[in-house]
Design goal:
alpha/beta, 7-stranded mixed beta sheet, binds thiamine diphosphate, about 15% strand
Length: about 625
């Protein structure tokens, strides 16, 4: 098996970076190539983030070879490119378990390894985190090194610029490595991307690439090195770069797949003090040509046969994202005021067709959730009808903007919130566990949770037609398989639907848990209500239910703390109604990555878990 590390002569000997440092420099290239081959075969075997890690193989070797990790710290941004780092830091035997239940974390995690300096998953945090570490280390009189590795996609976030801006005013030893592959998940966007492209399009970069080896071989010792860099690299590329203006010493661009060059230049940077930025140019999917040709498809992959040059066809189940994508096109056809916004998630949120058909009304704003929300607010001020498509966990980034810029001003924005609830392999950083809790405390916001695909379409239309702020939160993946239809009809705001009339126990279910509630309701002859709205609640229906039942069970795929069930209890308390109420939802702990079925079982949201939690009535 090519995903057994024992089959690789050098890689098999590397259990920790200190083993890598013992390798003869002349053999490093072979170790590098073995690492790449191992990654290709292993990830093909287990699935996971594929193309980004292939682009960072040389960089990972160079960093662990040159820096004294784990004393020196490498802070990976997002962390989807850190698989090679996991391999070199004692986890190669387990790589095939990544993202699976009880397997390796999908991203670096401080709980998994001392080499994972900072927990990630959400992007653009690396420079801030590395800066914080560098400042605290300096205060202790400690001269360890801190290296943030950030992609050009992650650099589009305001937070990365906030950190750069701050770093320049601090005299600390921070190295930022900008890993520029000209891609986010899809093509990178924006003025900064154009700026990087301009640097690379210059004759200087191609000239340097060719003469790079020679320049490095003859690289003088450190005393003259800074001068040479200025003359031969920095000066050659652009006299005054944006980074230089910000106060960084900018070095590059250099070929991030030329190991020898990387080793020489990073080795020299290590000896410099103050904020440094090294700009490396890499190729997403490097070394596996189908991924080089189509880095978007190979960003994250299912299991596949690496000998075949294509991925297996997807299982063709219609997902909630697909329902949204089609609805968006249908609505845009009818209403030319519609504008759609995505913070760099065109594929995940399924805006692919919309971006083709409605180019002028499609806005990929980069990894910039705060901006995604406020640009929607601005559009609404001018009478456009913005639809902001955003993952639940990434909306956490845009929370103040949602309150302050949108809802407080009663602006007409629809939030299409994907990946609400448990997402599976991406784990704790990506579960959409909190949106109901953090949204439902905002006055005036309409919040809907569909129980199936048809409901999702109805709710999107309802939210869109509502003249104010509204949110529809739907889960990852496929629903019940119900045909969503082609209509653009709405439902009455604030009205739930009794799906099954039973006795004694009433299951008030929100969104995805209606399906399991119906099964449980059948088995125990309980009433089942599809509440549809988390805000406004169907208060009249709840009052009615209280009169005719002896206990209420609320069900939601959201944290119990502050979620939809809490809303029901708050209402009952406001009415001085005393009735036994049990809340079923995600418990008050961070849920790790794993198979979605396992996670449902763990949280007791599967049918038997729900049954077990319902007190027996007399
Ligand atoms: C806050 C946040 N928004 C969106 C994402 C989803 N996401 C994961 S990787 C990625 C692209 C990152 O691009 P880049 O930093 O250039 O790395 P590359 O994949 O090109 O190596 C995006 C948008 C995320 N992880 N975090």
């Amino acid at each position: 098996m090519l995903c057994d590390p024992k089959q690789y002569p050098l890689l098999s000997k590397i259990n920790r970076p200190k083993d890598l440092r013992l390798i003869d420099p002349a053999d490093l290239q072979q170790a590098n190539d073995e690492l790449r081959e191992f990654l290709i075969n292993s990830i093909a075997h287990c699935g996971g983030h594929f193309s980004a890690g292939l682009g960072t193989v040389e960089l990972t070797i160079a960093l662990h070879y040159l820096f004294d990790t784990p004393n020196d710290k490498i802070i990976w941004d997002v962390g989807h490119q850190a698989y090679p780092h996991k391999v070199l830091t004692g986890r190669k035997e387990n790589l095939r378990s990544i993202r699976q239940t009880n397997g390796l974390h999908p991203f670096p995690s401080r709980f998994e390894s001392e080499y994972d300096a900072f927990g990630v998953g959400h992007s653009s945090t690396s420079i801030s985190a590395a800066l914080g570490m560098a400042v605290a280390a300096k205060a202790k009189g400690d001269d360890r090194r801190f290296v943030a590795v950030i992609g050009d996609g992650a650099m589009t976030a305001g937070m990365a610029f906030e950190a750069l801006n701050h770093a320049a005013s601090l005299d600390v030893n921070l190295t930022v490595i900008l890993n520029d592959n000209d891609m986010s998940i899809s093509e990178n966007v924006g003025g900064f991307r154009n700026y990087l492209a301009k640097i690379l399009s210059g004759k200087f970069y191609s000239g340097f690439k060719e003469s790079g080896k020679k320049a490095v071989q003859n690289m003088p010792k450190i005393s003259r090195w800074a001068h040479r860099v200025e003359e031969h690299l920095k000066g050659m590329v652009m006299p005054g770069t944006l980074f230089e203006e910000l106060g960084f010493n900018y070095i590059g661009p250099i070929d991030g797949h030329d190991l020898e060059t990387l080793l020489s230049i990073i080795g020299n940077i290590k000896k410099l003090t103050g904020p440094q930025i090294l700009h490396i140019v890499t190729k997403k999917g490097k070394g596996y040509s189908p991924a080089e040709d189509d880095p978007i498809a190979y960003h994250a992959v299912p299991t596949f046969n690496p000998k075949e040059s294509k991925l297996p066809p997807s299982k063709k189940k219609i997902t909630y994202s697909n329902i949204f994508g089609k609805w968006l096109c249908d609505m845009a056809e009818k209403d030319d005021r519609l504008m759609a916004i995505t913070p760099a998630m065109r594929e995940g949120s399924d805006l692919i067709e919309f971006s083709r058909q409605f180019k002028d009304r499609y806005f990929d704003v980069g990894i910039a959730e705060q901006h995604a929300v406020t640009i929607a607010a601005g559009m609404a001020c001018e009478g456009a009808k913005p639809v902001c498509a955003i993952y639940s966990s990434f909306l956490q980034r845009g929370y103040d903007q949602l309150i302050h810029d949108v809802v407080l001003q009663k602006l007409d924005v629809l939030f299409a919130i994907d990946r609400s609830g448990l997402v599976g392999g991406d784990g704790a950083t990506h579960h959409g566990s909190y949106d109901l809790s953090f949204l439902r405390c905002i006055p005036n916001l309409i919040i809907m949770a569909p129980s199936d695909e048809k409901e999702c379409r109805l709710m999107l239309t309802t939210g869109y037609k509502h003249e104010g702020s509204a949110a529809v939160r739907y889960p990852r993946g496929a629903g019940t398989g119900v045909d969503a239809g082609d209509d653009l009809q709405s439902i009455e705001i604030g009205k739930g639907v009794v799906r099954k009339q039973g006795e004694k126990t009433a299951l008030l279910a929100f969104g995805s848990l209606v399906t399991n509630a119906l099964i449980v309701g059948d088995e125990m002859n309980a009433t089942v209500v599809d509440m549809r709205f988390v805000k406004p609640l169907d208060e009249a229906l709840i009052l009615e239910i209280c009169k005719t039942h002896t206990q209420i069970i609320t069900l939601e795929e959201n944290a119990i703390a502050g979620g939809a069930g809490s809303a029901v209890s708050e209402f009952l308390s406001s009415q001085n109604i005393i009735i036994p109420v049990k809340h079923i939802g995600i418990p008050d702990e961070f849920i790790e990555h794993g198979d979605p079925m396992d996670l449902f079982e763990l949280c007791q949201l599967d049918v038997s878990g729900i049954k077990n939690q319902i007190p027996k009535t007399v």
